[in-house]
Amino acid sequence: MRRVFLLMLCLIVIVCAVNPRAYANSWGLKGELLDAVSSVKTWNDYSNNSTQIDNMAIMSSRYHNAVFYLDNNNKLNVFTKAVYQPASKKSNNVDLKSENSNIRIYYDENEWYNFCYKEEEWILNAAKFGDFELEGEAYYYKTKDNKDNAIWNAKIALSNFNIKLFPHSVEEVIHSNFMREALESGSYILNSDKNDYNFFIDKSKKHKTEVYSAPFGKSAWRAAKGKAAVSLNGGLWFFGPYIKNDTGSFACIRYDVSERTQRIGYIESNKLGDFLSKWQYNNDEFINVYLITTKESYLTDDPDVSQYKQFIIPEGTQFTCLAIYNYEYAYVSAEVKGDKFVDGGEIVWGFVPLKDLQFDDFNNHEEALFDFMANFKGIWVMDAGGTMAEDALWLNADGTYRAGFINKNSTFIINGEGNWYISPYKSHENLYWNNPVYKITFLKNNGIANIKGFSYIENGISFTNVEGGGGYIPFDGTINNIEYFNENETQYDTNG
Question: Are 346 and 369 within one domain?
């Protein structure tokens, strides 16, 4: 009997070895998703941890959980950040549910995340975490908890959904709106549109090259206990920044350390041959804003997959923010010695959760120039340039305002109101193309923020961002009525 059992066991092992699909089918997968997962050996250590809904399932291994999704182009997408990882007590209590053609990542009745399929991607349209609730469409999510409510100005797709850094309160939503708007000029630097995957790989190169966390060569910190390196005949992405300084010329790359880990860092640009001949140095694109941690946090060089904590950051640590990445991370610069943040150590660039940061001079509202602001009280209408704010702004000297448009009946239609202030702009921050003397901040009562560079001339004012601007002139008519916006109202061009 024992001999028969051993023989059967050997046959099973042989079948699984020569037929990965049979091994994969033990996960309970089916159809095209099974075909995609079983076509490579990468996922042999994974098992199905949820109900399979169409071509989507949650898969788990000892160290890694992810949503596996086969899209309409037969591409297998693996979304690590969309579910809790094994270190979390919640990681095994997850399932996929389907409701009215929506997909729901479900932990329990007090925590779930709902996605609808729209424009060829899965978009968040509802969520619940305790007393915090979200519903609506991208860029206009309505959120509420037992203290407040606000609009979250974000677009969350399944591909960039980060369950670990998802807001859990309206207060966090308002903070997210403010920080992303204030640092918006830094959102174009680490832009996925600049990624070129495998474009420059020279398969004849068999050696590795050093990877630094910052473009300063041996003055920069290196991960992997000082030994971080990348093979030049493997897959890697050029990530945008191309830097030249006193220590050399460096290109920012992202590469796979394993199927569970990536790294973003810098290599000497000459290692890429003539690939960068079409690129210009972009040192001057980085912003330069001082931020400080509001609680204990972490720094990672892998914001897209593992979010591995390379450093634990104490509350009150100051950083220079260079850019922002997606909705969750600030790209920062600091100096370290060992595992401590110090002055005069190795230079490290990395990613810190934006929710754990605020401006070093957070009480900037106390710098509001109220006497100066009184010069601009009244109604202003858009006159030229791009859209920097609503078509009509009604500014009061006490720091309150109304925003909207003026219809053909000279009725001011309000679609937002709140507080505004003008404050000094620090030119070293590199946020606005024209380097203005001032910046203007609008904080709507619904939680939306709008922050722009501010300039004025004799009969007009202008708002600017990193690449353009828009001008306003005083409204020279008479307002006959004031109403609040409804969706059936036809907007009238106040410019003409």
Answer: no
Q: Do both 292 and 416 map to the same domain?
A: no
Does residue 378 lie within any of the structural domains? yes
pTM of the model: 0.90
Please report whether residue 107 resides in a domain.
Answer: no
Degrees, nearest 5: CA angle 367-370-374: 155
Q: Which of the residue ranges 17-26, 54-63, 253-262, 267-276 would you say has the lowest mean pLDDT?
A: 17-26
The sheet carrying 132-137 orders its strands as 95-99, 102-108, 111-118, 121-129, 132-137, 140-144, 149-152
Q: Locate the DSSP E strands across 29-165.
A: 47-48, 56-60, 65-70, 76-79, 95-99, 102-108, 111-118, 121-129, 132-137, 140-144, 149-152
- Region 85-107 average pLDDT: 93
In 10 A of CB 275, how many CB atoms?
A: 16
Evaluated on CA atoms 331, 334, 335, 336, the torsion sign reads negative
> Does 227 share its domain with 295?
yes
Q: What is the pLDDT of residues 49-93, one digit of tens each?
A: 899 999 999 999 988 999 999 999 999 999 999 999 998 989 889
Q: Return the biggest CA–CA distance within the chain.
A: 99
Residue 395 has a CB neighbour count (10 Å cut-off) of 23
Is residue 456 domain-resident?
yes
**Domain containing residue 368:** 364-484
